[in-house]
Amino acid sequence: MSSRKDSPFASAAYISLVYSIFCTQNSKNKSKLSTATYENCLTYRQDNEMHSLLTSIHCNEIMDEPSEIQSFYKGKTIFITGGSGLMGKVLIEKLLYSCSDLDKIYILIRSKRGRTPDMRIDEMIKLPMFQRVRKQKPHMIKKLIPLNGDVTLNDLGLTEEQHECLINETHIVFHCAATLRLEANLKDAVEMNTVGTKRLLELGKKMKKLQVFVHLSTAFCHVDQEELGERVYDSPDDPYDVMRLVQWLDEDAINLITPKLIAPHPNTYTYSKRLAEKLVSDEFPNMPVVIARPSIVTPALKEPLPGWVDNLNGPVGLVIGAGKGVIRSMHCNANYHAEVIPVDVAINALIGIAQKVATAQTKYKNVPVYNITQSTIRPMTWGEVLEKGKKVARDYPFEGQIWYPDGDIRSSKFVHNLFVFFFHLIPAYLIDFLMLIFRQKRFMVRIQKRISDGLEVLQYFTTRDWVFHNTNMLVMWGDMSPKDKELFPLDLLHVDILSYMRDIILGARQYCMKEDLSSLPRARIHQRILYVIHVTTIYLFYFGILYLVYKNVEFVRVFLDYFTDKMKMLPLVGSIIETHSS
């Protein structure tokens, strides 16, 4: 193994690592910022507070009389599964704030890590996303009723008394519970996403006042369809056969047959959600079911807070990984559509869908399906997302960057793998080697392994293009009253992409990474130093390659010597070369 001083890349990595550690230690010391800098740091926070204030004033003005959607939810009892997830929390917050005349909301939530359902609900209500409910409508919090249960348990793990309450009182069901782990094994995915849906449907059939059962699916559950219409497609396998299969076979046997069984699906998540759709559609028309298919869900556009997000799933994890300088390359076609939807827009659609289906004047001939997508409204490619995202990410850098954030997307799998080897794996091993020398805990190789696994799963969706028809959603938006359009906006046509990108970056920074906005000036200084290291490393790297080629390839050396001799014959250039040679 060559020494560190023999490798320009290793030297740069060492300098970057030492500097990052130094800055991380210094960040713990409280430094007094100048007034101008402090005001600059608080711009985003003030924008959020102003947004909340203006939203509150605006909503109060238009909520003198209830809208059609608000009138529908008046006095209703709602049952929600998956309430602790991103979409579930945003749904609960929106219902509490904008549909305040509802009767109550039952939330299926399990105990977790020693915390009871009541404790988890209390913790959830304390999140920043519930601040407008806490301040303006604190009485609504009492309408949340947690039920200790789990969709993976028989009878949802509920008591007989709880069952009776749901059967006798529930008007609306939002089934949002699902495992979002794309790499989950088949048994876990089927148990949660398919069997869990079956259990909810069995309970729903007993509900005496049920008006609508909203099943949250995904726009990518039919990956074999290049054009996805708003209808249910045949499932390649019978859901009941698959559910029995995962019960009978042991885990090794299941893992062995999984790739062939789920094909053409890239993962167990989309496969199990497709099976669940079949179960839901089979209950139509005996049950008032509807299937909602959002695309890739991104942080909030406006509500409850611009940029709100609380997990690292999907694009947010990529944003943070790239912003920290850890992700340098991604396999992606820049010309393909980025099919994403802000979480608050998706939730507004869910709330509107429930009202529209429940109050429909004419009976549906087929199970209603809504594709909650935006590509037909505001087409945007992955290349555009990257171009705008890079600019914003550099203006609002994350703390503790490992390297200057200059990653890129590549359509060639071969080229991408080369970049992964040189800019993901080699730096990871170098950093871990340095940590070993300094007797520190090694972490970078492990992190890169997790990143590689995650990218491998996500890249299926960034290297393919689909067309999602969303006529039903557009018709619903067109049929909404002006008041409902203000309260439950679905308009994506007039979104300021750069502003939204800024909200995503700062939202991930604040809510996921817990990085205070006051650290932005320090993070920018850190990033500028990393930029110098980054550029220096690139030049040293290419210089080293040229030097090795020159020293070891006879033809190249002869050619360069010949070229130099010819250049000396030129009057001006020759004199310069002679001067430097002497």
Automatic annotation (TrEMBL):
<protein>
    <recommendedName>
        <fullName>Fatty acyl-CoA reductase</fullName>
        <ecNumber>1.2.1.84</ecNumber>
    </recommendedName>
</protein>
<dbReference type="Pfam" id="PF07993">
    <property type="entry name" value="NAD_binding_4"/>
</dbReference>
<keyword id="KW-1133">Transmembrane helix</keyword>
<dbReference type="Pfam" id="PF03015">
    <property type="entry name" value="Sterile"/>
</dbReference>
<dbReference type="InterPro" id="IPR036291">
    <property type="entry name" value="NAD(P)-bd_dom_sf"/>
</dbReference>
<dbReference type="GO" id="GO:0102965">
    <property type="term" value="F:alcohol-forming long-chain fatty acyl-CoA reductase activity"/>
</dbReference>
<dbReference type="InterPro" id="IPR026055">
    <property type="entry name" value="FAR"/>
</dbReference>
<keyword id="KW-0444">Lipid biosynthesis</keyword>
<dbReference type="GO" id="GO:0016020">
    <property type="term" value="C:membrane"/>
</dbReference>
<dbReference type="GO" id="GO:0035336">
    <property type="term" value="P:long-chain fatty-acyl-CoA metabolic process"/>
</dbReference>
<keyword id="KW-0812">Transmembrane</keyword>
<comment type="function">
    <text>Catalyzes the reduction of fatty acyl-CoA to fatty alcohols.</text>
</comment>
<dbReference type="GO" id="GO:0005777">
    <property type="term" value="C:peroxisome"/>
</dbReference>
<keyword id="KW-0443">Lipid metabolism</keyword>
<feature type="domain" description="Thioester reductase (TE)">
    <location>
        <begin position="80"/>
        <end position="349"/>
    </location>
</feature>
<feature type="transmembrane region" description="Helical">
    <location>
        <begin position="418"/>
        <end position="438"/>
    </location>
</feature>
<comment type="similarity">
    <text>Belongs to the fatty acyl-CoA reductase family.</text>
</comment>
<dbReference type="InterPro" id="IPR013120">
    <property type="entry name" value="FAR_NAD-bd"/>
</dbReference>
<keyword id="KW-0560">Oxidoreductase</keyword>
<feature type="transmembrane region" description="Helical">
    <location>
        <begin position="529"/>
        <end position="550"/>
    </location>
</feature>
<keyword id="KW-0472">Membrane</keyword>
<dbReference type="InterPro" id="IPR033640">
    <property type="entry name" value="FAR_C"/>
</dbReference>
<keyword id="KW-0521">NADP</keyword>
<feature type="domain" description="Fatty acyl-CoA reductase C-terminal">
    <location>
        <begin position="423"/>
        <end position="515"/>
    </location>
</feature>
<dbReference type="GO" id="GO:0080019">
    <property type="term" value="F:alcohol-forming very long-chain fatty acyl-CoA reductase activity"/>
</dbReference>
